[in-house]
Design a protein that fits this description.
The chain is α+β, with helices and mostly antiparallel strands. Among the domains are: 42-428, TolB, C-terminal domain (Neuraminidase, 6 Propeller); 444-618, Leucine-rich Repeat Variant, CATH 1.25.10; 979-1122, Sandwich (Jelly Rolls), CATH 2.60.120.260. Helices cover 27% and strands 25% of the residues. It is built from 32 helices and 51 strands. The strands form 13 sheets. Strands 4, 25, 26, 27, 28 and 29 form a six-stranded antiparallel sheet that branches. Helix 13 packs across helix 15 (594-602). The protein is globular.
């Protein structure tokens, strides 16, 4: 161990909707915003840029040629088209509250480099008086512009440099916050333009076709040649973009890189298939990960916790050239304007998706950053010259006034910098500067030759030009390129151009299918429909069939029949362990191939059975009433003794979910007896305390199926497990089972045991009782009788009770719990100002937190992560904290609005929209659980217009309790040391790696406590000297599994003997006494025991068990090694 002086972070708290943000902002490092501050001139700003070694930054354009650039695109003639949002944030004439709003001031400019020196020296205003333009795309003889509520086409028809035509092609985009409007316009290999939703949504009308598409929860693609449009899975805030193979990515303000692995065009085929969310977090440190600015940290108005973390991620791209080096090809770059930088991630394919990490030379730095706090990079792109281009909006304040207190708005010049703006390019630090190629004068054959360029944007431009021209003369050259192009990227682009021209033939597709590169084969498979029969596709090599992207496209184009069914079964077996490929492959199932697929996967002795796919196939068979398929499954379940019990349970559960009955599965008495014997075995397993918690929970969950539930006896069995002695995982499963079986005695069983229910169980129990009107009446009966004290009804449930649609029930609730009349929040706050004069007790406040906050927030490793972890709040001010608690609706982002969803079966679900997919909606409820509902099962869904965090805590908490809660929240910060360099200050989300092993490294944990720190020299956590010290990770599992746990640690003989514990999900899983390794520098690996973990985000906490004598140990890593199933 080495000596270190711990730092104490100041605490700040912000409320945005339900969120109490947490973080590590050190106020001593904050630089106050001062009105009248001046930005730097272009050359001085250029000098402020810091870029990775081996590169330099060049100034390509600056004011007065360009101002407030937010998006740009190159034309075939090399000119640069720029969208300027000069009217940000509230209109060209708005400067402070009270000024007129939304005066249009946006422009589209055309920049020209007349002397060919790589710097633009002339600008023409092509369009002006636009309202907040967000994107521009060169298209044929003009440009397409995104400016909500429209996408329009503009063209200069008389050669004067200004637009003469303005044709609206699409309309209906939401005119929401300017940072959340439609944007993008990125060209795809599919011959469509892809757009980012911006989060605002809308019902989009194609003006020519008069067809509408609702993009709430989706992005959009458009075909400008036909004016068609289609939704895309995923909802990007700013900048949907792709790599060279048509893998699409996006981001939102605090998530710098998402991948969208589920094509809407494929997933929509089968409404039975749903995915938990449409995107995958690509970085190994997802979400608001750390960034490393070189500029001073300025005073912030929101997201206080996210100083030096992603909070404004936007305008990302994949680098698609090799000018900056082969190792940079395929890297992702994301702008972070609040912190004046562009961050890089190095991508790596992982099945049907990607993972990424920081470049090893940038673990504590950024690829591109400025020391100038006015620098606001908002868009980064690969240029047709191979340089990396960056648009710098250059503003004094970049936050939108919506999140800035009015008193600050009056003090600051929020539009300072509106007459400024820069565009930079990053190039190799060599004497030569690359040139923008001019291709507008090339003949078709010469254009095709340009497809051999390593530059992706240039190939895209050639692609589009050939389509604009009609390009029939290029067809022979394109076919030659498909067969003999020197680059896979050239061959695949030529293939897709032929498709766009309508000139694709079977011979060319066969040539592409025989290509040695999976990327080419992937798109050949996508385009093979009507060209190549399924029998030929089934003969692709194992290497190609094992490629997840090839498999996905194969599943989308095959034309049915037995050969198709057998190939789909083969693909399911090959990719069953890929959670992102499996749903798309399953979406290929229909009533014409289901029997063939099930037959292939269940036949005796089958080498590949795809056990993970069979439950979904079983649900389809039951729902579609496919008798032959049901017979195959019944025989498999009843007579195949080799099926793992977990698989048998999952398949039966899916069959019952789909509506199958005992009679459907067991045609005679003997088979029915075998099924009932299996059910009885599960009842015994529920009670068997020697079994792992996961096994008991799975059995309990299964008993909730109405076809299995045995009435009063099963109600007694399950309700009897809702006791403190039962593990949390089992109690959760019991409540889920009761909610599914819906026995009439459930309300009585829950309310009669209310006093012994744990807080988390109470939240789930209340959710059950509020889901049905007759059960809600029973809940009110319990409150009326005193079985449940009004104060034990949490604020969220209380809010729902006081907002019931049934007038009689609502009146009873108001009588028992107090009126929900719309009290003025300011009056409530004024009435509680005396809370500040009460000395709060943090220990008592922790109890208050466990009672009223734990359902939605995490602190000290305990709670539900609906809102963020509160262990490192960033505003110590009791005034701010009280506002956050008593007035949660003061400012709400759309993504934190509460929704009410009613199912066709009459269930009501309340919560946030966690995600929307082609076939399902996922709702995150107040108890932290997420529930996915197929769209076909939704009766209605509407926003309540308020945050999930309810008003009315003043009716639940006394003023002394509020004072205690404020004291507890304030005390959390004293446990949170500053984050050591190379370590993150939030629990890293870590998934299984090679062989399913999960390694929790010291360098990837969150540290809380007094002196605990990460020691890079030892790659270990040390100075573990206090009972309050702890290390935390989040272990992300997509399926339940058993693990053997081991750790690598060191401790000297004189420090050995302290007690330790490992908590997972707030429960102690493992504990013991530290044994000596012989010395602090002698690390040894020790096996600790086995654990059973659910498919969830498992919050892992390592801490001492009691006071620490000397030091606990130095910890390098914990490993979770899968136990053979």
């Amino acid at each position: 161990m080495k000596q270190s002086q711990p730092e104490v972070n100041l605490i700040r708290l912000a409320a945005v909707g339900i969120i109490l943000f947490s973080g590590d902002l050190n106020a001593a490092d904050n630089v106050p915003l001062k009105n009248g501050a001046k930005g730097l001139g272009p050359e001085a700003a250029l000098a402020s840029m810091k870029v990775a070694p081996g590169y330099r930054v060049e100034l390509a354009a600056s004011e007065p040629l360009v101002m407030d650039p937010v998006a740009f695109d190159w034309g075939p003639d090399g000119r640069l088209w720029v969208a300027e949002m000069r009217d940000y944030p509230n209109g060209l004439t708005w400067n402070k509250p009270g000024d007129p709003l939304d005066a249009p001031g946006g422009r589209i400019k055309v920049l020209t480099d007349r002397d060919g020196d790589g710097k633009y020296d002339d600008a023409t205003v092509f369009l002006d008086n636009l309202s907040y333009p967000t994107g521009v795309k060169v298209w044929d003889k003009g440009v397409l512009v995104t400016a909500a509520p429209e996408i329009f086409y503009a063209e200069d028809t008389d050669g004067d440099g200004r637009a003469d035509t303005h044709e609206v092609w699409y309309s209906g985009f939401a005119q929401s916050n300017q940072q959340h409007r439609v944007n993008g316009l990125a060209w795809g290999l599919d011959n469509w333009l892809h757009l980012a939703n911006g989060d605002g949504g809308g019902v989009i009308l194609s003006q020519e076709r008069r067809e509408e598409v609702d993009i709430r929860g989706f992005d959009l693609r458009i075909d400008p040649s036909t004016k068609r449009q289609e939704p895309l899975n995923g909802r990007t805030q700013c900048g949907r973009f792709r790599d060279d193979w048509d893998n699409w990515f996006g981001c939102n303000n605090s998530n710098p890189l998402w991948h969208y692995p589920y094509p809407w065009r494929l997933l929509k085929r089968n409404p039975e298939i749903s995915v938990p969310r449409a995107y995958v977090d690509v970085p190994k440190e997802p979400g608001a990960a750390p960034v490393y600015p070189v500029s001073p940290t300025l005073e912030r108005f929101n997201d206080f916790d996210r100083s030096n973390r992603f909070t404004s991620a936007c305008g990302p791209t994949i680098y698609r050239d090799v000018l900056l080096g082969q190792e940079v090809y395929g890297n992702a770059f994301t702008c972070e304007p609040v912190h004046n930088l562009v961050s890089r991630q190095v991508l790596k394919a992982k099945g049907a998706t990607f993972t990424s990490d920081r470049h090893p030379d940038e673990l504590g730095s950024e690829f591109f950053a400025s020391t100038d706090s006015w620098s606001r990079p908002v868009s980064v792109r690969t240029g047709p010259d191979g340089a990396l281009w960056v648009a710098d909006m250059y503003r004094f304040v970049i936050e939108h006034p919506e999140w800035i207190p009015q008193e600050w708005q009056k003090k600051l010049d929020l539009r300072a910098g509106t007459n400024m703006g820069r565009i930079y390019r990053v190039v190799p630090d060599t004497p030569d500067s690359p040139k923008i190629p001019r291709v507008d004068r090339l003949e078709d054959a010469a254009l095709v030759a340009r497809l051999e360029s390593p530059n992706g944007p240039l190939r895209d431009l050639v692609h589009q030009m050939l389509l604009w021209r009609g390009g029939k003369g290029a067809v022979p050259s394109l076919r030659e390129m498909v067969s003999s192009g020197s680059r896979p990227t050239s061959r695949v682009q030529a293939l897709c151009i032929l498709d766009g021209l309508g000139e694709l033939d079977a011979e060319t597709v066969r040539i592409a299918l025989a290509d040695s590169d999976p990327g080419v084969v992937r798109h050949a498979a996508r385009l093979s429909l009507n060209h190549v029969p399924a029998a030929e596709l089934a003969k692709l090599s194992d290497a190609m069939l094992d490629d997840a992207f090839v498999a996905i496209e194969l599943s989308g184009v095959l034309d049915g029949g037995e050969v198709y069914g057998k190939l789909i079964a083969d693909l399911l077996a090959r990719h069953e362990n890929d959670p992102h490929a499996l749903p798309i492959l399953l979406s290929a199932i229909d009533q014409g191939n289901l029997e063939t697929v099930i037959s292939q996967l269940t036949q005796p002795g089958a080498a590949k059975r795809a056990n993970l796919a069979l439950p979904t196939l079983s649900r389809m068979a039951a729902k579609w009433r496919e008798k032959n398929s049901l017979s195959l499954l019944s025989a498999y379940l009843i007579h195949d003794g080799a099926i793992p019990q977990t698989s048998r349970t999952a398949i039966l559960s899916a069959l019952f979910d789909g509506g199958a009955s005992i009679e459907d599965l067991a045609g005679d008495e003997a088979n029915r007896a075998k099924l009932h014997a299996f059910f009885d075995e599960l009842r015994a397993r529920v009670k068997d305390t020697s079994l792992p918690d996961q096994d008991r929970a799975g059995a309990a969950r299964f008993l909730g199926h109405p076809s299995v539930f045995a009435g009063e006896s099963d109600l007694r069995l399950l309700a009897g497990l809702l006791v403190p002695q039962s593990p949390p995982l089992l109690r959760e499963a019991v409540l889920e089972a009761l909610g599914r079986a819906r026995p009439a005695g459930t309300p009585k069983a829950l309310t009669s045991q209310w006093k012994t229910l744990a807080p988390s169980d109470r939240a789930r129990a209340l959710g059950l009782l509020l889901g049905r009107s007759d059960w809600t009446s029973a809940l009110l009966d319990a409150v009326e009788s005193g079985s449940i004290v009004p104060g034990e009804v949490d604020a969220s449930s209380r809010s729902r009770l006081l907002d019931l649609k049934d007038p009689a029930l609502r009146q009873r609730a108001e009588t028992l719990l107090g009126s929900a009349s719309a009290e003025n929040r300011e009056e409530v706050l004024r009435a509680h100002q005396d809370v500040f004069s009460i000395k709060g007790d943090p220990a008592s406040g922790k109890s208050v937190f466990a009672t009223v906050c734990i359902a939605c927030h995490v602190a000290e490793g305990i709670g539900q992560p609906v809102g963020p972890d509160l262990a490192a709040l960033t505003d110590r001010s009791p005034e701010s904290m009280l506002v956050a608690i008593l007035d949660p609706n003061r400012a709400i982002e759309d993504k934190f609005l509460n929704y009410t969803l009613t199912t066709q079966g009459g269930d009501s679900i309340f919560g946030l929209i966690a995600d929307e997919g082609a076939n399902s909606v996922s709702i995150r409820q107040a108890d932290g659980t997420a529930r996915s509902v197929p769209r076909q099962d939704i009766s209605s869904m509407a926003s309540t217009g308020v945050s999930l965090m309810p008003e009315g805590f003043e009716k639940i908490l006394t003023k002394p309790q509020l004072a205690d809660l404020l004291a507890y929240l304030g005390s959390l910060g004293s446990d949170a040391p500053s984050t050591p360099k190379g370590n993150i200050d939030m629990a890293a989300r870590i998934s299984p790696g090679k062989g399913g092993v999960v390694e929790l490294r010291a360098s990837r944990c969150r540290l809380d406590g007094e002196r605990i720190e990460y020691m890079p020299d030892f790659d270990a956590i040390g100075w573990w000297t206090s009972e309050r010290d702890r290390a935390q990770w989040t272990l992300v599992l997509d399926r339940p599994r058993s693990y053997r746990v081991e750790w690598e640690y060191s401790v000297s003989p004189d420090a050995a003997g302290n007690s330790w514990q490992i908590e997972i999900g707030g429960k102690e899983f493992l504990s013991g006494t530290v044994a000596s390794t012989g010395g602090w520098e002698t690390f040894k690996t020790e096996s600790l025991g086995t654990v059973n973990l659910p498919a969830a985000d498992n919050h892992v906490v390592v801490r001492s068990k009691g006071p620490v004598k000397g030091a606990l140990f130095d910890l390098r890593a914990i490993r979770f090694v899968p136990v053979a199933e």
